[in-house]
UniProtKB/TrEMBL annotation, chain A:
Coiled coil: none annotated. One of its GO terms (biological process) is transmembrane transport. The keyword Nucleotide-binding does not apply. Keywords: Cell membrane, Membrane, Transmembrane, Transmembrane helix, Transport. This is Sugar ABC transporter permease. It comes from the Bacteria. Belongs to the binding-protein-dependent transport system permease family. It comes from Dactylosporangium siamense. Residues 68-295 form the ABC transmembrane type-1 domain. It is found in: Cell membrane. CDD domains: TM_PBP2. InterPro entries: ABC_transporter_permease (IPR051393), MetI-like (IPR000515), MetI-like_sf (IPR035906). Pfam families: BPD_transp_1 (PF00528). It is a multi-pass membrane protein.
UniProtKB/TrEMBL annotation, chain B:
SUPFAM superfamilies: Periplasmic binding protein-like II. The keyword Mitochondrion does not apply. It comes from Dactylosporangium siamense. Belongs to the bacterial solute-binding protein 1 family. InterPro entries: SBP. One of its GO terms (cellular component) is ATP-binding cassette (ABC) transporter complex, substrate-binding subunit-containing. PANTHER family: MALTOSE-BINDING PERIPLASMIC PROTEIN (PTHR30061), MALTOSE_MALTODEXTRIN-BINDING PERIPLASMIC PROTEIN (PTHR30061:SF50). One of its GO terms (biological process) is maltodextrin transmembrane transport. This is Sugar ABC transporter substrate-binding protein. Keywords: Signal, Transport.
Length: 303, 437
């Protein structure tokens, strides 16, 4: 066997497990999604080619517009809120001299709670009238809002929920902050830089890669925001969470928690329009891809 | 870009593979009359716990009378799992669903076999089933499902609160109902609702347009399957009536009140706790109320209606059962379905255990059926000639949920033009019908 061929085969054999994984779990589903997005398909019948019809309908679907607007709101508010919350908590912890191990664990624990259980607990805590939060607020003379039952407060309530479980982001920032060279911080302090100037000129450039990483991951996960929105709406509406009408509670109150993936699920699996749902999924993929690319390029420029 | 170009043939190949791996319907010939039926049947249903035990009991009776057939029961299976299993070629022989919403899609796509051929061969007459039940188990004259028990919806009212307010009996018209709701309502000094005569918000417990539609006789779909909602003035009557009542309470006051109430299926249910004096619900609430609120004095009645000829009717829906097109033993599957849906003893036994309404005329008339006075009201609603259901659609519940979304907007004051709003509902429903089913 010629040496070159042998070398190529060796390389290929080493690459094979990863290649098989990528083809089976990424390229095949992606290719299928793209193909189905040009078809009328209900999972049960043979797909029927419909060209660009599914994509054209994206521009003429008021439910999609509403869902995309809600998801955009979450991306603009929730992602920075989580990043700031995570960073602030991490900075607080790096400043602790005693008991930081215990405090770290306490701050991290909520991130381990299953999203459904955490959401149900939050709906109960924030339940207007009988919930502990509004009861406590009433004690000090504040008439608490309707939280998950108000279209104006439902999304901010979801942001509160995600801030409570900010431990995963916090751990990343904590590691990055502990990696900031002390010598640089000392030098800046000697040069007379105040706390903000030290953060701006020393800490931030050092943790920039982690900031970019949390932004990219934050946007991608928020674009797929599903479980908490579905459970919060269902629990707050007071209706049963099982049975045929599960998707009728999605979005409660007044469609304010109806996110893009929820609509994707409903049209695909409830209304049998899987072709259209695939078109929505492809658009979601492209948006996530474009935003990630944009953030990475900006971050490269900065560094 | 140059890096992406080599990916294109690969993606195309993957797409072609996806196309090749997708399901297509298959026809299966059926056996001759009197053929010997044996073998194993896999039976998926959605029941769990106590209700699953009731199903097991009836299946045991079936096996005793059909010793050559072995039934493998899998409980707690939902519709999306069944859809995926059938699509992937691994569906059960027999599937039992809680939702009539799947009938349109399963019949149209052939996911469930057409049972017409079995019914004809075994001379099973459909005259033994009430009309409404026949409607929700077929789609465009293709009978791919059979009924297994049903739910009927009516009005529950709190007798003690009625006596306190000096109201003699349950209201029969929309006006009487609104008057009673107002009389029964109690507010605190600042206007906060303490007891609502009726909580008229859409989305509260069972207040779905599908359940309340029979009050005005609203039509859902036209003969061709497209939306009839915008063209039927009955829906406007219902929505205007409901909005008037919402405005009388104050939308914000109602939302605040609703937010303070307990969950529908918990023992904090607002009707059971006397926080809501009148409520629409299914017959199954009788068992819940007697179990969770034994001191509650309640009565049941048909829903009030916009015209007297419809009084006594209501909304009916039920469980449906069918044979997957991927069934390995369709003949034995049919035997099981025939037993569960036409054998009077089996149906009455299930109805008595699950406290649901039986779905054949013989079972309804059976002396073995436990009929207490409250349950009988629901059986009468079920039997009323004007009682209606939500028709099967190839896009599942898209028409109901699109309408419900508009109703939510309407009650909050977010839609000024009712006619235009309902036309938009039609447009959206018809688009979804084109994209799906």
């Amino acid at each position: 066997m010629p040496h070159k061929l042998r070398h190529a085969l060796t390389v290929a054999s080493f690459m094979a497990p990863a290649t098989v994984g990528i083809v089976v779990f990424f390229l095949y589903p992606l290719g299928s999604a793209v193909y189905f997005s040009f078809t009328k398909f209900d999972l049960l019948s043979t797909p029927e080619w419909v060209g660009l019809r599914n994509y054209r309908h994206l521009f003429d679907d008021p439910f999609l517009t509403r869902a995309a607007t809600n998801t955009l709101w979450l991306c603009v508010i929730m992602v920075p809120a989580r990043m700031l919350g995570g960073l602030a908590t991490a900075m607080l912890l790096t400043g602790l001299r005693r008991g930081s191990g215990i405090v770290r664990t306490i701050f991290y624990l909520p991130a381990l709670a299953p999203p459904v259980a955490a959401t149900l607990a939050f709906v109960y805590l924030l339940k207007p009238g009988v919930g502990p939060v509004n009861t406590a607020l009433a004690q000090v003379g504040i008439d608490g809002p309707l939280w998950f039952n108000s279209p104006d407060w439902s999304k901010p309530s979801l942001v509160l929920l995600c801030l409570w479980a900010v431990g995963d982001v916090m751990v990343l920032y904590l590691a990055a902050l502990l990696d900031v060279p002390q010598a640089q911080l000392e030098a800046a302090r000697i040069d007379g830089a105040n706390a903000w100037q030290r953060f701006r000129a020393v800490t931030l450039p050092n943790i920039a890669p982690v900031v970019t990483f949390t932004a990219v991951i934050g946007v991608i996960t928020t674009l797929q925001y599903f479980a908490q929105a579905a459970v919060a709406a269902s629990a707050a509406s007071g209706q049963a969470t099982t049975g045929a009408g599960i998707s009728s509670t999605f979005g409660y109150p007044e469609g304010s928690t109806f996110t893009y993936p929820l609509w994707l699920y409903v049209v695909g699996f409830r209304y049998g329009a899987l072709g259209y749902a695939n078109a929505m999924a492809v658009v979601l993929f492209l948006v996530a891809f474009a935003v990630s690319l944009l953030l990475l390029r900006r971050s490269l420029k900065v560094t | 870009m140059r890096r992406i170009v080599p990916l294109i043939p690969l993606l195309t190949a993957v797409a072609l593979l996806a196309a090749a791996c997708t399901p297509g319907p298959k026809d299966k010939p059926i056996a001759d009359p009197g053929a010997d039926v044996s073998g194993t049947v896999e039976f998926w249903h959605f029941f769990t716990d106590r209700e699953a035990t009731a199903i097991d009991g009836v299946v045991a009776d079936f096996q005793a009378s059909h010793p050559k057939i072995k039934v493998v029961v899998k409980s707690g299976q939902d519709d999306s799992k069944m859809t995926q299993a059938i699509g992937g070629g691994q569906g059960p022989d027999v599937g039992l669903s809680y939702s009539t919403d799947i009938v349109g899609q399963f019949c149209a796509s052939g996911a469930w076999l057409d049972l017409g051929q079995y019914l004809t061969r075994d001379k099973v007459s459909l005259d033994g089933f009430p009309q409404t039940v026949k409607e929700y188990t077929q789609y465009k004259n293709k009978r791919c499902a059979m009924p297994v028990l049903a739910d009927a919806y009516g009005l529950y009212y709190n007798k003690k609160l009625f006596a306190e307010a000096g109201i003699a009996g349950p209201p029969k018209t929309l006006d009487e109902f609104a008057d009673a709701a107002k009389k029964l309502t109690k507010r605190s000094a600042d206007g906060t609702i303490q007891v609502a005569g009726f909580l008229p918000l859409w989305g509260f417990y069972e207040n779905a347009p599908s359940h309340l539609g029979p009050m005005v006789g609203g039509q859902w779909l036209k003969g061709d399957g497209t939306s009839a909602i915008g063209g039927d003035p009955a829906w406007q009557t219902l929505l205007k009536w409901q909005k008037d009542l919402v405005d009388w309470y104050g939308y914000d006051k109602l939302e605040a009140f609703r937010a303070s109430l307990g969950d529908e299926y918990s023992d904090a249910n607002a009707f059971q706790k006397g926080q809501v004096a009148m409520n629409f619900d299914g017959e199954y609430r009788i068992a819940f109320a007697k179990d969770q609120a034994p001191d509650l004095q309640f009565g049941v009645a048909p829903m009030p209606t916009s015209s007297p000829d419809r009084y006594g009717s209501g909304y009916v829906t039920g469980n449906v059962i069918g044979i997957s097109r991927t069934a390995k033993n369709p003949e034995a599957a049919w035997e099981l379905i025939k037993y569960l849906t036409t054998d009077t003893k089996a149906i009455v036994k299930l109805a008595n255990t699950l406290k649901n309404i039986p779905t054949t005329k013989d079972a309804l008339a059976s002396p073995d059926l436990h009929l207490d006075p409250e349950f009988k009201v629901f059986v009468d609603i079920f039997n009323h000639p004007k009682t209606s259901t939500t028709p099967p659609s190839s896009a599942g519940p898209a028409y109901q949920e699109t309408f419900q979304t508009f109703c939510d907007t309407w009650q909050s004051g977010g839609a000024a033009d009712l006619g235009k709003g309902l036309s938009d509902v039609d447009k959206q429903v018809n688009s979804l019908l084109q994209l799906g089913g």
